[in-house]
Design goal:
Layout (H helix, E strand, L loop, with lengths): L8 H6 L1 H7 L12 H9 L13 E2 L11 E2 L3 H7 L2 H7 L9 E8 L3 H9 L6 E3 L11 E4 L2 E4 L4 E3 L6 H9 L6 E2 L6 E3 L2 E3 L12 H16 L16 H8 L3 H9 L5 H15 L8 H10 L4 E3 L5 H11 L8 E2 L3 E8 L2 E7 L5 E11 L3 H7 L5 H8 L3 E12 L8 E6 L8 H8 L3 E4 L9 E10 L4 H6 L3 H20 L7 E14 L10 H6 L6 E3 L10 H20 L1
Parallel strand pairs: 1-5, 2-20, 3-4, 3-15, 4-12, 9-17, 15-21
Antiparallel strand pairs: 5-6, 7-11, 8-11, 9-10, 13-14, 14-15, 16-19, 16-20, 17-18, 18-19
Helix pairs in contact: 2-20, 6-13, 6-20, 8-12, 10-12
The structure holds flavin-adenine dinucleotide (FAD).
The site of flavin-adenine dinucleotide (FAD) has 38 residues, from helix 6, strand 7, strand 13, strand 16 and strand 20.
């Protein structure tokens, strides 16, 4: 599948590197690139001065890991943010005066925070990250040297010569990736079909499936269609993107087809939206759905450890410029207050001590539901816009298997019998369990072992209580095992006896729902606009769209503004 346009090209369209250069930021020289072997050594340096490993890739686990969830550890966030007054009382009764003055504090060490830190590295930013490891949703684990994602798995090919492509080269990611093939495999009625969009699962009605396929390609290639870039960088596209943001992804596709979708298309698009955004294709806007799904027909890049490799490599390069003490894992910001001469950020550190730091500028790279709680004097309209964001929960199961698997595909959607009953979403998604399986060893196959990642988005709000429940690990582990043994492994031709372990990662509110109207009704514009010229927002929520490119593009946009502010 070839293409000329995808969400990656957005960066090229506006010449974002120009914006950074104009703002005096270091732009993508290759001066720091020392090749892959230099990076391997740097990975060992991702530790705090007191010896805490904050690498987004956890390479410390034994052959059999403890039966605990990886992913988000909610303890600190819930304890402090659900009752800030109590946390302050427990920490001595008041927020301490700042003990440091720095140019930039970045709240949140996911990709948005790390791209921002990288762009602003000449200002020696301090990065506060609530979790013990950096990376946010882009983290990974390792098993006998095989890195596998516990969150984000892949990204889109950057256009040749685009700023993002240059950053990938600068940080060495271009030496790690493998391009996914152009097949679209599904596991249907117990058998893998490699060409779903050619109508393989229902040859008699193949033209219906192929018509939709043609439409996605035309959108991607802008062949008589418009590709809906998100973030929107080309103002000329705004009116069209707004228009399709007002309708659901399903409604838009049905309009294009002039009638209902083929049941297999309905199912695969449901699985895709559950897996990609933990929401349904009836609640997602057509702008978001089309952006994501059409991009899948472009080139998809996969690195060992998934997108954690991007986080890790960004950090390795960052650490060449900033002191290790500036990266602060297990530090949760709970108050951000703009003052006359700067911004004071209060946080609880790794020892549960309250601290505060004064900055000229703050980049809030944490989710907006957190920003809404911790930003003092937030405007009512921004607070109201933030309340419109919804978040669902997510589980990822990594299946550790003995022996290699001769798989020439990367990801397989678990189509079952091709039908889905969407009247009750909770029932439908609980019955489905994982939507797709990814060969985590695709980018770097291993002769002795294989890791298969199962993705289970949970597009209904009650799931959060369930995943945080006391016995949830055992319950969900059984669920993963049952699906593996009864369906996924036999269908993929893998003997279930080869399972060594199933490791689970849990995320309570990892991604915003790209709901109808978030862009068209100005919600995104309101939540992402800078606050009192000192607080900037860089995160996937800016566009209610969870993807590496959203965070990267927003970092490019707003770091240029931060730079201007620091020079003012
Ligand atoms: C299971 C899963 C699979 C995905 N797959 C893909 C994929 O294949 N491709 C893709 O492009 N995208 C994927 N995504 C989405 C992608 O991971 C995100 O869009 C991207 O990583 C978002 O980065 P971010 O920095 O904007 O947000 P986050 O990753 O959410 O980072 C925010 C950070 O802020 C920290 N934080 C929160 N509150 C505080 C506080 N008070 N103080 C300090 N720190 C705080 C958090 O701990 C977190 O580290 C996936 C997401 C999930 C959950």
């Amino acid at each position: 599948m070839s293409q000329s346009m995808s969400r990656r090209d957005a960066l090229k369209v506006v010449g974002a590197s120009g914006a950074l250069a104009a703002a005096g930021l270091p732009v993508f020289g290759c001066a720091t690139s020392k090749g892959h072997s230099g990076l391997d050594a740097a990975k060992n340096l991702l530790v705090t001065p007191d010896g805490r490993d904050f690498n987004p890739v956890d390479r410390t686990l034994p052959h059999l890991a403890p039966r605990l969830f990886a992913g988000e550890n909610p303890e600190k966030g819930h304890r402090v943010l659900w009752d800030v007054k109590a946390a302050v009382a427990a920490g001595g009764g008041k927020i301490p005066e700042p003990t440091e003055r720095v140019p930039v504090v970045i709240v949140g060490g996911g990709l948005g925070g790390l791209f921002s830190a990288y762009f602003l590295r000449q200002h020696q930013p301090v990065v506060l990250e609530a979790q013990a490891r950096l990376g946010g949703n882009c983290r990974a684990e390792s098993w006998h040297g095989i890195d596998y994602a516990i969150g984000a798995a892949y990204f889109m090919e950057p256009a040749h010569g685009s700023p993002l492509g240059k950053i990938y080269a600068e940080i060495g990611i271009d030496k790690l990736w493998r391009v996914k093939g152009d097949e679209d495999p599904v596991l249907f009625e117990g058998k893998v079909h490699k060409a779903f969009w050619d109508g393989e699962t229902d040859p008699a009605r193949a033209p219906e499936i192929k018509r939709l396929h043609r439409y996605f390609l035309d959108v991607l290639n802008e062949n008589g269609q418009v590709f809906p870039d998100i973030p929107i960088l080309d103002p000329n596209k705004r009116a069209y993107i707004d228009s399709i943001d007002k309708v659901s992804f399903r409604a838009h596709l049905e309009k294009v087809l002039g009638g209902p979708l083929h049941p297999h298309a309905e199912k695969i698009l449901s699985l895709y939206m559950w897996s990609t955004f933990a929401c349904t294709f009836d609640e997602a806007s057509a702008a978001a759905g089309l952006n994501a799904y059409a991009s899948e027909f472009g080139e998809v890049f996969v690195t060992p450890g998934g997108n954690a490799a991007v986080a890790e490599n960004l950090l390795c390069h960052l650490m060449r410029t900033i002191p290790p003490a500036n990266i602060r894992p297990s530090c949760l910001a709970f108050d951000v207050a703009v003052k006359d001469d700067g911004v004071v950020v209060a946080y609880e550190d790794q020892n549960q001590q309250l601290c505060s730091i004064h900055a000229q500028v703050v980049v809030m790279a944490c989710p907006k539901f957190i920003a809404g709680r911790i930003l003092e004097d937030i405007e009512p309209e921004r607070a109201a816009a933030i309340k419109r964001l919804r978040y669902n929960s997510y589980l990822v199961g990594n299946v550790l298997l003995d022996g290699p698997v001769e798989a020439d595909v990367y990801d397989v959607f678990l189509l079952g019998d091709g039908h889905v009953d969407l009247k009750d979403i909770q029932k439908a998604t609980d019955r489905q369990r994982s939507a797709d399986a990814i060969f985590a060893t695709f980018a770097r196959p291993d002769k002795e072992r294989t890791v298969l990642s199962l993705y289970r988005g949970m597009p209904y709000p009650e799931a959060r209580t369930a995943v945080y429940g006391d016995d949830s690990f055992d319950t969900y582990r059984r669920d993963f095992e049952n699906q593996l043994i009864s369906e996924s492994l036999p269908g993929l031709g893998i003997d279930p006896k080869r399972i060594v372990d199933v490791r689970l990662a849990r995320f309570g509110h990892p991604m915003p729902v790209p709901a109808i109207g978030m862009i068209a009704e100005g919600v995104c514009d309101t939540i992402r606009k800078p606050f009192r010229e000192r607080v900037f927002f860089v995160e996937q929520d800016n566009w209610a769209y969870a993807a590496l490119e959203t965070s990267a593009i927003e970092a490019v946009t707003y770091c240029a503004e931060v730079e201007k502010r620091l020079r003012a």
